[in-house]
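Give me structure tokens for this 88-residue protein.
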Amino acid sequence: MAIGVFATQGDAESVVLGLAALGITRFERLPTSTDQAAADPRGTIVLRVYLQTLDEEQLVARTLLESNAQSVQLHDVVTRDDAADSIK
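Here you go.
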């Protein structure tokens, strides 16, 4: 999973459009707090991108690092399927 924090929704949307052009469409936009979402939907946005391959990870990381993101994080996430496979 990749996470980018953006100062504005416009900054996040430009990354979403770029990722969609690369065929990466598994993401969600989240306000940094529920209070903020109600008060100002244009405020700081967290963009969470779900990755399936190493190629996707590299594309997304590069895109986020070259964007106006205030913060970029990459996380390894174990899915239920991954966990079930490791038990077998």
